[in-house]
Amino acid sequence: MKKYDFNQVIDRKNTFSFKWDNVSYGDKDMLPMPVADMDFPVAEEILAAIDQITKHEILGYSIVPESLQIAAQKKIANDYGWETELAWQVWIPGIVPGITAACAAFSSPEDGILTAIPVYHPFHLVAGWMGHPLHTFPMIEEAGRWTYDFVAFENALKKGPKVFLFCNPHNPGGTVFSTDEIARIKALCHQYDCKIISDEIHADLIIDSNVKHRCIQSEISFFATSKAYNTAGLGGAVAIIPDAATRLAFQKKTFGFFPMLSRHSIEVMLATYAMPSNWLDSLLPYLRSNHTLLISRMNQLPGISMLPLEATYLAWIGFDSQMHGDFQKRLFDAGLHVLRGDQFLGGDFVRLNFACPEVQLLKAIDIIESVVYATR
Ligand SMILES: Cc1ncc(COP(=O)(O)O)c(C=O)c1O
């Protein structure tokens, strides 16, 4: 089996990296673990596709070929168990703009947008971008994992939102929703006439090998290869929208706003779908090992706790603010950048991206331990 070297440390500084060249770092030597991209080299099949474009020397406008449509259709059927039609696909430059367009199409200033919190920040920020009311309900801890408070979910649905933003696997917290949970979510949204907009970008990043990602098969479902194959900076995603009227309403909010996909994005997605599965077969054990290392060390620390993730490489680490104060700032001052729980409407938590060589993770753990044990 082909091996990928995830231990390799690649210097990403001075590459205009959103993660490594963050302006807030100044001259400080920071270890960045905020935004969700991986510090691993991209697979050589993907790099070869980019080389081919460079050799050809042309960067004109591109179309989405049928081969890409078929490749996405096959993956959604084979890996997530959903048989879809090619006509249902709408290719878009990214999922975040897709979510905004979906909200523009189906929410209004009267009814608003519903999401579970904590959540990936564009899910709650979009309400402010649109000027629509935001409705939320909390995730709760149950049997050692994060799930919905279904009573609070139903109460929020009663307020009349027309759009429910569903993140599966959930970011942050890593929940992969079970078939039963998905059935409950669908039944409730159907009962209250609320469209489900589903974001499944983390579907391949399964940490708990006992769980399987299943699609909710909702009005609009977004998929992308960009997280699991580390091509997030290139953009490119697909929306699956079975109903023709819903599809047209969504597309109308994209016309004139969404650029065409670049040749790079298309060729890279084609190469990604064509890749043998051993990229994930190599990546996932590496991420699982980092996850085990992190969770075992975190849960030994006073006033620090972390639930195991079912998916994603984004650890959601709780802290006791009585003991640790402004923990995110203290970590930042000590040279580790993790995201503040508040960014996700999540309170006393930080989010740490562990998709990095183990040596970097060990350094991060050292910093966390030194901050936890430092007297304030
Ligand atoms: C749940 C979720 N959706 C979407 C995105 C970003 O998607 P895109 O780059 O396609 O807009 C992220 C990035 O971290 C994410 O975590």
Number of strands: 14
Bound molecules: pyridoxal-5'-phosphate
Order of helices and strands: EHHEHEHEEHEHEEEHHHEEHHEEEH
CATH superfamily of the largest domain: Type I PLP-dependent aspartate aminotransferase-like (Major domain)
Quaternary structure: single chain
Roughly what percent helix? 25-40%
Number of helices: 12
Separation of termini?
A: 50 Å
Largest sheet features: 8 strands, mixed
Mean pLDDT: 96
Strand order of the largest sheet: 2-9-8-7-6-3-4-5
Strand residue content: 15-25%
- Categorize the overall geometry: globular
- The domain count comes to 2
CATH top level assignment of the largest domain: Alpha Beta
Q: Which class do the helix and strand fractions yield?
A: alpha/beta
Characteristics:
376 residues, alpha/beta, Aspartate Aminotransferase, domain 1, Aspartate Aminotransferase, domain 2, 2 domains, 8-stranded mixed beta sheet, 12 helices, 14 strands, globular, binds pyridoxal-5'-phosphate, aminotransferase
What does this protein look like?
GO terms for molecular function: transaminase activity. It holds the Pfam family Aminotran_1_2. InterPro entries: Aminotransferase_I/II_large (IPR004839), Class-II_PLP-Dep_Aminotrans (IPR051798), PyrdxlP-dep_Trfase (IPR015424), PyrdxlP-dep_Trfase_major (IPR015421), PyrdxlP-dep_Trfase_small (IPR015422). Belongs to the class-II pyridoxal-phosphate-dependent aminotransferase family. MalY/PatB cystathionine beta-lyase subfamily. Its EC number is 4.4.1.13. By secondary structure, the protein is α/β, with parallel strands linked by helices. It folds into two domains: about 25-45 and about 280-375, Alpha-Beta Complex (Aspartate Aminotransferase, domain 1), CATH 3.90.1150; about 65-275, Type I PLP-dependent aspartate aminotransferase-like (Major domain) (Aspartate Aminotransferase, domain 2), CATH 3.40.640. Helices cover about 35% and strands about 15% of the residues. The protein contains twelve helices and 14 strands. It has helices at about 45-55, 65-80, 95-105, 120-130, 150-155, 180-190, 245-250, 265-275, 280-300, 320-325, 325-335, 360-375; strands spanning about 30, 90, 115, 135-140, 145-150, 165, 195-200, 220-225, 235-240, 305, 315-320, 335, 340, 350-355. The strands form three sheets. The chain has an eight-stranded mixed β-sheet with strand order 2-9-8-7-6-3-4-5, sandwiched between helices. Strands 10-11-14-13 form a four-stranded antiparallel β-sheet. Helix 3 (about 95-105) crosses helix 4 (about 120-130). The longest helix has 21 residues, at about 280-300. The termini are far apart. The model has no long low-confidence stretch (mean pLDDT about 95). Pyridoxal-5'-phosphate (PLP) binds next to helix 3.
